[in-house]
Amino acid sequence: xxxxxxxxxxxxxxxxxxxxxxxxxxxxxxxxxxxxxxxxxxxxxxxxxxxxxxxxxxxxxxxxxxxxxxxxxxxxxxxxxxxxxxxxxxxxxxxxxxxxxxxxxxxxxxxxxxxxxxxxxxxxxxxxxxxxxxxxxxxxxxxxxxxxxxxxxxxxxxxxxxxxxxxxxxxxxxxxxxxxxxxxxxxxxxxxxxxxxxxxxxxxxxxxxxxxxxxxxxxxxxxxxxxxxxxxxxxxxxxxxxxxxxxxxxxxxxxxxxxxxxxxxxxxxxxxxxxxxxxxxxxxxxxxxxxxxxxxxxxxxx
Length: 302
Description:
By secondary structure, this protein is of the alpha/beta class. It has helices spanning 11-25, 30-42, 46-51, 59-73, 78-82, 105-119, 144-152, 165-177, 213-218, 221-224, 240-252, 268-278; strands spanning 84-87, 90-93, 135-138, 158-162, 184-188, 201-206, 253-262, 281-288, 294-301.
């Protein structure tokens, strides 16, 4: 990007130049990256960029945008550059301490809502206490999953458990921003370890790390070099934490309660096998994502 020309850099000119530059450098989603980063720089929406296409940037704005361009070229994800990511039509804060919410996790939200609303399992609790939660999200990360579900299921109180203290702070802030903080108690810990065993919950949800070691080594630089390894890598076969939770969950579920797990491609059958061995569930099923991949395992406690 040369500043030698006397002509000012307008929004449209910058979008065209940046998109071409990202394409040349092999940056993923070059046009979307250019739009989101420029909108972030200017404090505008992506639609506003086209409504104000002939607006020139000030030298200060141009300098801030150039910094973002360089960082994006090196592979840093757009969500970390802006500090925001949309999930379930909500805006979430994200940092390098949290996994960036993925669209496939919305399938987990949909599956939970279908199980509760369609299966008639939602208990009638007019004033749930956050000290006696009825649902738990194991491994909350940024809080996207627990916040989305807390908004959709207002009759449930929630626990959110996360091993990373830095991620917990992000999750707490996202709960405050989306006005569900009073119904979510956040705890630091590994899986269900902070809790005394007992049938406390009507719902356990989890999007745990499930990337196998071999797949982790082949991930793009954008993921492998920037997103937290502990939020993605699930051991040699990707099932270390999923298997452990499957072995524990039935102890914490009430009769008729649901366990809902996001899983990786090709993992649903094995995860359902873990649960079937326990003989504690009367319903076991897999839910496919938008690419026809079994993405969610649902199990109902008998």
